[in-house]
């Protein structure tokens, strides 16, 4: 497939700039070199922050109409080049072409939602006379941009997660510095191309490509940065929170998502949904199903159905229309998944299906009898591995589902409304999906978790609240008639 790749240069405040030192971008499927991007330096990061602080003054002066128009034009540009964006996502990342097309469509929707929400970022009046001694006072509050936002995105959704940072930031009138994952910077630069085409004023947006060890601390620690929006792992999130100082943090830090299957569930549907939720994007998804709790009465029947669904998944080339499962992002990550599975087996787990690695590809794997002492039981594997556990009842399933330091999403399969409500109110997570796996998200909903899964909420409307501040205005009206 012939492609025009918009890599090679990074966008510093509206100017495409190159550097002598490069970061090579490889296709994780075969390790073929795709392109190179600049390896930004500490000096580049300092420059980016300086530009952004000039850009924030420009961004906050954009009218709501102008912001909406820019966002809509950027989404139109991506839609016009849909297949080009999708092919790039698949080429540099882990998704199959079918999964990549869905991501491109979602990114378009995310930017359009941002345009819509720009007009809804409003305040309200405050009745000051509700308190004695405040007769004659009238007030209101409005929201104003927070200023300069640093956004750090991962490799698994290299376009839509970028859209979830840029769209709300621009809609709420901020300047933003984006640092995309080193493994997948091309999709982010391609997104920037859409905003340049849409007429976003220079200095409002920077996409800086570089290694975290070279530029990360400069961006995180700067007092001229007012918010950090990070999507990634818990350990990195903890490091950022220690270094950031007093500034707003929004963090989505992954999960170890549970699914509960009650004895009254539609078992064929549950098996299909959980199989998809566990193995889409080769399990490299923060919402991926990792732990499956099934009531004992239907455990054997459900296990058979889930294994059958899993066995039908097709591995192969990401660009093939027939492929269901692509590679992991690199061989190091594939080796980590392999090591965690092997450790679980050494401690007593059984491999029901899968458990085989070929370079960056790891076969969809289901484990049984995994002890809590195994690393994979409590931590996020971020690969195509799920674990089956029999439970006596719903209470045990909820207790075990809550017994990890993560809480992003959970799923429950049941025909009983009381069970559904019990799970919805008792599961310690940011979202409960009834008769769906944990891997359900629309871009308009609040998205985030509790415990080690992060701070704050994404989703366009909710991100915009985080990316703006409230200011109260009060008038003392004259008492003279």
UniProtKB/TrEMBL annotation:
<keyword id="KW-0560">Oxidoreductase</keyword>
<comment type="similarity">
    <text>Belongs to the aldehyde dehydrogenase family.</text>
</comment>
<protein>
    <submittedName>
        <fullName>Aldehyde dehydrogenase family protein</fullName>
    </submittedName>
</protein>
<dbReference type="InterPro" id="IPR015590">
    <property type="entry name" value="Aldehyde_DH_dom"/>
</dbReference>
<dbReference type="InterPro" id="IPR016162">
    <property type="entry name" value="Ald_DH_N"/>
</dbReference>
<dbReference type="InterPro" id="IPR051020">
    <property type="entry name" value="ALDH-related_metabolic_enz"/>
</dbReference>
<dbReference type="InterPro" id="IPR016161">
    <property type="entry name" value="Ald_DH/histidinol_DH"/>
</dbReference>
<feature type="domain" description="Aldehyde dehydrogenase">
    <location>
        <begin position="18"/>
        <end position="473"/>
    </location>
</feature>
<dbReference type="InterPro" id="IPR016163">
    <property type="entry name" value="Ald_DH_C"/>
</dbReference>
<dbReference type="Pfam" id="PF00171">
    <property type="entry name" value="Aldedh"/>
</dbReference>
């Amino acid at each position: 497939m012939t492609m025009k790749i918009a890599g090679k240069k990074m966008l510093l405040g509206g100017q495409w700039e190159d550097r002598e030192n490069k970061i090579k971008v490889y296709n994780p499927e075969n390790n073929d070199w795709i392109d190179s991007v600049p390896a930004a330096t500490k000096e580049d990061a300092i420059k980016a922050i300086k530009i952004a602080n000039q850009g924030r003054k420009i961004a906050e002066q954009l009218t709501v109409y102008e912001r909406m128009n820019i966002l809509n034009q950027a989404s139109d540009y991506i839609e016009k080049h849909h297949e080009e964006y999708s092919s790039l996502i698949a080429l540099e990342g882990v998704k199959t072409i079918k999964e990549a097309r869905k991501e491109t469509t979602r990114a378009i929707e995310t930017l359009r939602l941002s345009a819509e929400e720009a007009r809804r970022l409003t305040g309200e009046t405050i009745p000051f006379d509700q308190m004695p001694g405040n007769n004659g006072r009238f007030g209101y509050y409005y929201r104003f941009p927070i200023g300069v936002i640093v956004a750090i995105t991962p490799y698994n959704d290299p376009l839509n997660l970028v859209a979830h940072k840029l769209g709300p930031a621009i809609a709420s009138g901020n300047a933003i510095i984006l640092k995309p994952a080193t493994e997948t910077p091309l999709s982010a630069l391609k997104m920037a191309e859409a905003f340049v085409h849409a007429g976003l004023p220079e200095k409002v947006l920077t996409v800086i490509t570089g290694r975290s060890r070279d530029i990360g601390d400069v961006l995180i620690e700067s007092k001229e940065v007012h918010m950090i929006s990070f999507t990634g792992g818990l350990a990195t999130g903890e490091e950022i929170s220690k270094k950031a100082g007093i500034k707003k943090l929004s963090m989505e830090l992954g999960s170890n998502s549970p699914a509960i299957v009650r004895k009254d569930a539609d078992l064929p549907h549950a098996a299909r949904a959980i199989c998809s939720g566990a193995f889409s994007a080769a399990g490299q998804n923060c919402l991926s199903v990792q732990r499956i709790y099934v009531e004992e009465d239907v455990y054997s029947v459900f296990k058979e159905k889930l294994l059958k669904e899993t066995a039908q998944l097709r591995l192969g080339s990401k660009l093939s229309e027939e492929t269901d499962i692509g590679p992991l992002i690199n061989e190091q990550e594939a080796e980590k998944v392999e090591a965690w599975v092997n450790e679980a087996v050494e401690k007593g787990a059984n491999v029901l299906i899968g458990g085989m690695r070929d370079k960056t590809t790891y076969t969809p794997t289901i484990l049984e009898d995994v002890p809590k002492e195994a690393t994979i039981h409590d931590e996020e594997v971020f690969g195509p591995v799920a674990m089956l556990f029999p439970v006596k009842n719903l209470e045990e399933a909820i207790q075990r589902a809550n017994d990890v330091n993560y809480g992003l999403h959970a799923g429950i399969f049941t025909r009983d409304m009381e069970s559904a409500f019990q799970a919805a109110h008792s599961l310690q997570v940011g979202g409960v999906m009834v008769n769906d796996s944990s891997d359900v998200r629309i871009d308009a909903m609040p998205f985030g978790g509790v415990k080690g899964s992060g701070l704050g909420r994404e989703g366009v409307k909710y991100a915009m609240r985080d990316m703006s501040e409230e200011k109260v205005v009060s008038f003392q009206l004259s008492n003279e008639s």
